[in-house]
Design a protein that fits this description.
Pfam families: NAD_binding_11, NAD_binding_2. Keywords: NAD, Oxidoreductase. Belongs to the HIBADH-related family. NP60 subfamily. This is NAD(P)-binding protein. This protein is an alpha/beta fold and 283 residues long. It is built from 15 helices and 9 strands. The chain folds into 2 domains: 3-159, Rossmann fold, CATH 3.40.50.720; 164-282, Orthogonal Bundle (N-(1-d-carboxylethyl)-l-norvaline Dehydrogenase, domain 2).
Length: 283
């Protein structure tokens, strides 16, 4: 069985590398230079997204948003879908995912929704959490292909359920991130010893692998992205839309949406999501 992968960004590259170690893999990215690491690892280069489908049985997409995915779907792509399974791991709207499912099914293929929880570090170690949605039998059939990239792949229900789960999970992630940035900013403003402050947090019950990584990045002013500000802002927009549709109150996400919009408008869109600290510290 051959695997295809479309989209080699911060998340896509380590995911594709883990798949490449287990399966013959063909990759494509809009910026071809980003394929270098995969080619060195033994993957093949697909000249177009449709060519990747032609050479693969199971195809993963990890692209920025719905319009980015839509831009690669042309007539050749649709023709190549017959008999193939397309797995989207990107965060998109439920409506977009449902439209893609319909389009893939009409072309004779199968579609699985599997957004993932985790950033660059768990992607590198194959420890993402997948939220699978779609036909349950097909989800079970393709499990061997998601094992190299996940520590857990949990079936959530029909198409849309995986994304709705991701939105709810990201409320926790984003508010924790903004809270940690605000905590560090208050410590800085009070002229505390930031190393001692970080050690106190690390020794407490709220410490986690995530908090330690983000504290270290703030202390070192290391804004290289593990999950970018623009991705986080996009996530807050998806959550706000989902919350409105469900008539659910999400006041913390409204605040985080405003903070991340400021970060994007300040030119920080390609920095790590913890760079929201800079918005607070520079005000």
């Amino acid at each position: 069985m051959n695997v295809g992968f479309l989209g080699l960004g911060v998340m896509g590259t380590p995911m594709a590398l883990n798949l490449c170690r287990r399966f013959p893999t063909t990759v494509w990215n809009r910026t071809a230079s980003k394929c270098t690491a995969l080619l060195q690892a033994g993957a093949e280069l697909g000249q177009t997204p449709a060519k990747v489908l032609e050479q693969s049985d199971v195809i993963f997409t990890m692209m920025f948003d719905g319009p980015a995915i839509r831009s690669v779907i042309d007539d050749d792509f649709r023709k190549a879908l017959r008999g193939k399974t397309l797995i989207n791991t990107s965060s998109v709207s439920v409506e977009f995912s449902q439209s893609i499912e319909k389009e893939v099914n009409e072309a004779g293929g199968k579609f699985i929704e599997m957004p993932v929880s985790g950033s660059k570090v768990p992607a590198e170690s194959g420890n993402l959490v997948g939220m699978m949605a779609g036909d349950q039998n097909e989800c079970e059939r393709i499990r061997p292909f998601v094992e190299p990239i996940t520590s857990a792949a949990i079936y959530c229900g029909p198409i849309g359920a995986g994304l709705k789960t991701k939105y709810a999970v990201n409320v926790f992630l984003i508010t924790v991130t903004a809270g940690l940035a605000e905590s560090m900013n208050l410590a800085r403003a009070q002229r505390l010893d930031l190393e001692a402050f970080s050690r106190v947090l690390d020794a407490g019950p709220l410490a986690s692998a995530y908090s330690r990584i983000k504290l270290d990045k703030m202390a070192k002013a290391d804004w290289s992205p593990q999950a970018a500000v623009k991705d986080c802002y996009n996530s807050t927009e998806l959550i706000r839309t989902a919350a409105a549709a469900a008539e659910a109150e999400t006041p913390l996400i409204q605040v985080c949406n405003s903070l991340y919009r400021q970060a994007v408008n300040s030119g920080l869109e390609n920095e790590d999501m913890i760079a929201v600290y800079r918005v607070l510290s520079e005000q």
